[in-house]
């Protein structure tokens, strides 16, 4: 037993174990070279592991009980990790994803009004309509990059449902900014760990250009909407933010409005498009699962597209999506920073340490999932769900900062998947196990290419 282990046994909190790193660089190179392999490697040190990236101290936590503690039970021991620590991040600092304290709470209360079950059910028809239009278009192409096409589809759904906005000719500004955000978040690019954002690297220039184009688009949209005669009667999120008062008369400033739109357009389309991309990728390799899905759709939907009323009956569809998101959680990790010293299972996490809670790794832990890397929708029986420890599955985070768009996303996934796959079958043309690039979200490193054709 080492000195550290013996003092842990005595009850005093000690530094967690972790891999050796280089002076100054810490573990940055290991992470940059192979981010997914790095997660796997450090998991071998235990459930609480320290590492260092870009000169900053990190701890990765691999046990659901500790995840629950930091996200739910003791969520006031941590705050959101500010990505500015990595070379400066001006991504929507005044949007609900990054604000804290009273500002966050007032924003969240106001925004919550756009996500009631009733409203989300109202969005259902648009979700299905947009998916049908897009799928019909793909049927005439020889080969498509599924990730790009699904991203266009989910941008349009988000813009039309939440902002009542026609993206015709404008969608590119949104997908460009999403790509630039991901490129900047990609741990394989070392410059972001060490260079401040005013250094004009090519990726920084692309980011600045696309954010400016996007902000111009937002300003245009906001001023159009402000001038709308029926602003008071409209019930989309943008109109709501322009007219509604939050707690104590809270109103969004111009900057908050911009950042909120940027936040929702990014967080609300990129994540669902990735969930659909990975589901399509897995289904293209599992014809048996596809067949069972089609049987469910025939039974439940007859020959029609789904409606929100059908969703509770799409039980197998739900299992397929749950399993796909387990294997490929679009938000692959949640990040926090300790606001005071924390004793985590006998390990000391000093104030200021950044804490990583990796869905990607915990969702593939054999302590909780048999044959964890296999795609087995059948595992998701009611009994399995009940016995699984809470936070062994947490694609939408948890606690007060859990995903505000969770219901919206679940509805969208369950409506879009049958709408698209009733019209098309996909043959996979690219790598069945694509290299992954965990940036701001869990991107495939290269396009997922498929041929789309009408079902036989
Ligand atoms: C499969 C789809 C989605 C996944 C996997 C996902 C995942 C997550 C996760 C893990 C968090 C928590 C982050 C943290 O605690 O640091 C989060 C927060 C958030 N998500 Fe989602 N999300 C999805 C869809 C959506 C959609 C459709 C929207 C909007 C329409 C959305 C908007 C947000 C926002 C605004 C937050 C910040 C909430 C806050 O801090 O109060 N997400 N999401």
What shape does the CA trace take? globular
Overall pLDDT score = 88
N- and C-termini, Cα separation: 64 Å
Low-confidence stretches: 1-9
Please give the order of strands in the largest beta sheet. Answer: 1-2-8-5-3
| CATH C-level class of the domain at 1-73 and 332-394 | Alpha Beta
Rg over C-alpha atoms, rounded to the nearest angstrom:
22 Å
Strand runs, count: 12
- Largest sheet composition: 5 strands, mixed
With helices defined by DSSP (H or I, 4 residues minimum), what is the helix count?
A: 17
Helix fraction, binned, reads 40-55%
Distinct small molecules bound, one entry per kind: protoporphyrin IX containing FE
According to CATH, the fold-level topology of the domain at 1-73 and 332-394 is Uridine Diphospho-n-acetylenolpyruvylglucosamine Reductase, domain 2
Q: Which oligomeric form is depicted?
A: single chain
The SSE order reads HHHEEHEHHEHHHHHHHHEEEEHHHEEEE
Structural class: alpha+beta
Report the portion of residues in β strands: 5-15%
Q: Architecture of the domain at 1-73 and 332-394 in CATH? A: 2-Layer Sandwich
Throw out a few tags for this protein:
5-stranded mixed β-sheet, binds protoporphyrin IX containing FE, 456 residues, Uridine Diphospho-n-acetylenolpyruvylglucosamine Reductase, domain 2, 12 strands, 3-stranded antiparallel β-sheet, globular, alpha+beta, 17 helices, disordered N terminus
């Amino acid at each position: 037993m080492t000195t550290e282990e013996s003092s842990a046994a005595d009850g005093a909190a000690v530094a967690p174990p972790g891999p050796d790193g280089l002076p100054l660089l810490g573990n940055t190179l290991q992470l940059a070279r192979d981010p997914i392999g790095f997660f796997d490697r450090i998991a071998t040190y235990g459930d609480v592991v320290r590492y260092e990236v870009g000169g900053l101290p990190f701890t990765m936590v691999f046990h659901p009980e500790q995840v629950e503690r930091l996200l739910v039970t003791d969520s006031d021991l941590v705050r959101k990790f500010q990505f500015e620590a990595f070379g400066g991040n001006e991504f929507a600092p005044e949007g609900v994803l990054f604000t804290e304290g009273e500002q966050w709470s007032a924003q969240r209360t106001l925004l919550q009004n756009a996500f009631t079950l009733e409203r989300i059910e109202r969005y259902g028809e648009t979700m299905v309509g947009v998916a049908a239009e897009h799928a019909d278009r793909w049927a005439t192409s020889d080969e498509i990059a599924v990730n790009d096409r699904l991203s266009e589809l989910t941008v349009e759904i988000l813009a039309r449902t939440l902002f009542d906005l026609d993206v015709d000719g404008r969608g590119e500004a949104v997908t460009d900014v999403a790509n630039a955000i991901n490129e900047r978040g990609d741990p394989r690019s070392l410059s972001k760990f060490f260079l401040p954002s005013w250094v004009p690297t090519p990726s920084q220039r692309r980011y600045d250009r696309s954010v400016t184009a996007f902000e111009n688009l937002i300003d245009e949209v906001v001023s159009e909407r402000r001038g709308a005669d029926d602003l008071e009667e409209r019930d989309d999120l943008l109109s709501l933010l322009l007219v509604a008062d939050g707690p104590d008369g809270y109103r969004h400033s111009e900057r908050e409005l911009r950042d909120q739109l940027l936040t929702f357009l990014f967080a609300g389309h990129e994540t669902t498009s990735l969930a659909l991309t990975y589901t399509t990728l897995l289904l293209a390799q599992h014809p048996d699962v596809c067949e069972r899905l089609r049987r469910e759709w025939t039974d439940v939907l007859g020959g029609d597209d789904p409606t929100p009323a059908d969703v509770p009956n799409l039980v197998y569809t739900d299992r397929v999506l749950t399993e796909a998101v387990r294997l490929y959680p679009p938000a692959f990790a949640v990040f926090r920073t300790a606001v005071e010293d924390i004793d985590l299972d006998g390990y000391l996490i000093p104030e200021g340490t950044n804490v990583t809670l990796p869905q990607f790794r915990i969702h593939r832990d054999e302590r909780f999932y048999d044959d964890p890397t296999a795609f087995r929708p059948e595992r998701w029986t009611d009994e399995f769900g009940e016995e699984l420890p809470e936070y062994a599955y947490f694609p939408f985070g948890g606690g007060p900062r859990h995903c505000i768009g969770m219901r919206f996303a679940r509805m969208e996934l369950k409506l879009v998947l049958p709408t698209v796959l009733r019209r098309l079958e996909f043959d996979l043309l690219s790598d069945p196990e694509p290299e992954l690039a965990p940036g701001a979200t869990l991107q495939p490193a290269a396009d997922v290419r498929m041929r789309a054709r009408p079902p036989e």
